């Protein structure tokens, strides 16, 4: 996990101090084979519970986390992809996918389990710069 905080130390108050921070969670790993994808999703849900401004970005193999129709029985792992449909109930409505990552993998928005905003790599980089905290999984 990589954490980058672009906020000066004197502003690290979080919601308790009255300042809502903008957190972006960047998912770059495939959904199965490591713990990163599932643990990243759990951290997102926890952060949202603390009334922070939470968004998620999916790049590289992280786009596979959102693919419809995942069959995990053969690998004896629970399919957690339906959990992404519950994110808006936690006020996590900003989901971004890198266009180039989709294209390289032969995927499109229609292949994804939830609505997302597709951004170019350049647009994604600009969006990341606007965040207070960027956490990578």
Secondary structure layout:
Elements: E1 2-5, E2 22-27, H1 36-49, E3 53-58, E4 94-98, H2 99-104, E5 117-119, H3 121-129, E6 133-136
Parallel strand pairs: 2-3, 2-6, 3-4, 4-5
Antiparallel strand pairs: 1-6
Question: How is this structure best described in words?
Answer:
- This protein is an alpha/beta fold.
- The protein has one domain (2-7, 19-136): DsrEFH-like (Hypothetical Protein Ychn, Chain: A, 3-Layer(aba) Sandwich).
- Helices cover 21% and strands 20% of the residues.
- It is built from 3 helices and 6 strands.
- The protein has helices at 36-49, 99-104, 121-129, and strands at 2-5, 22-27, 53-58, 94-98, 117-119, 133-136.
- The protein has a 6-stranded mixed β-sheet.
- Strand 4 (94-98), helix 2 (99-104) and strand 5 form a beta-alpha-beta unit.
- The radius of gyration is 15 Å and the shape is globular.
- Mean pLDDT is 85; it is low at 8-16.
Task: For this entry, give a set of tags.
137 residues; alpha/beta; Hypothetical Protein Ychn, Chain: A; six-stranded mixed β-sheet; 6 strands; 21% helix; globular
Question: What's the pLDDT, averaged over the residues?
Answer: 85
* Residues in β-strands, percent: 15-25%
Radius of gyration over C-alpha positions, nearest whole angstrom? 15 Å
In CATH terms, the superfamily is DsrEFH-like
What is the name of the CATH architecture? Answer: 3-Layer(aba) Sandwich
Structural class: alpha/beta
Structural domain count = 1
At the first level of CATH, the class is Alpha Beta
Tell me the number of helical segments per DSSP (H or I, 4 or more residues long).
3
Low-confidence stretches: 8-16
Give me the strand/helix succession.
EEHEEHEHE
Give the overall shape, derived from the CA principal axes: globular
Percentage of residues assigned to helices: 10-25%
Which strand order do you get reading across the main beta sheet?
1-6-2-3-4-5
Which fold does the CATH topology refer to? Hypothetical Protein Ychn, Chain: A
């Amino acid at each position: 996990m990589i954490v980058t905080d672009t906020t000066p130390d004197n502003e690290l108050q979080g919601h308790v101090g009255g300042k809502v921070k903008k957190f972006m969670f960047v998912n770059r790993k495939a959904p199965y084979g490591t713990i990163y994808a599932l643990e990243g999703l759990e951290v997102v849900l926890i952060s949202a519970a603390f009334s922070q401004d939470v968004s998620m970005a999916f790049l590289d193999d992280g786009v596979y986390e959102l693919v419809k129709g995942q069959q995990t029985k053969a690998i004896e792992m629970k399919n957690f992809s339906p959990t992404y449909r519950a994110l808006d109930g936690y006020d996590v409505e900003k989901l971004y996918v890198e266009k180039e990552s989709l294209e390289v993998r032969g995927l499109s928005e229609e292949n994804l389990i939830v609505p997302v905003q597709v951004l170019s790599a350049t647009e994604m980089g600009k969006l990341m710069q606007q965040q207070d905290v960027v956490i990578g999984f």
